[in-house]
Amino acid sequence: MKKIFAILVLTLFSLSVVTISCSDDDEKNPVDCLQLLTNYTEAHSVYISDMDNTDKCINLKNAIEDYLDSDCPALTPENRDALQEELEALPCY
């Protein structure tokens, strides 16, 4: 679990750097990618603090699905795969 968490943290950091550095894309893209990433990051942090809470699991599931459904430019195939794996590993999936 610690290994997965470390990988997710690194992935999130990479995503946030790319998302912030690609501010030109926001004008072409009506989806607020930074907000979707923030929603995911917050839901992930809250869920990690109480992994037995079904509501927190569902909130994380929804945040991941929203982010995966977006066309955010920072969401590379590798990042999509990592998020999909995290989603499928959730007990509420």
Q: What features would you describe in this structure?
A:
Helix content is 77%, strand content 0%. By secondary structure, the protein is mainly α. It has one domain (2-89). Helix 3 runs antiparallel to helix 4. The longest helix has 20 residues, at 2-21.
Topology as H/E string?
HHHHH
Protein structure class:
mainly alpha
As a percent range, the share of strand residues is under 5%
User: Which sheet architecture does the biggest sheet show?
Assistant: none
Number of strands: 0
Number of helices: 5
If you compute it from the alpha carbons, what radius of gyration comes out, rounded to the nearest whole angstrom? 13 Å
Kindly report how far apart the N and C termini lie: 17 Å
* Principal-axis shape: globular
User: Would you tell me the overall average pLDDT?
Assistant: 82
| Approximate helicity band | over 70%
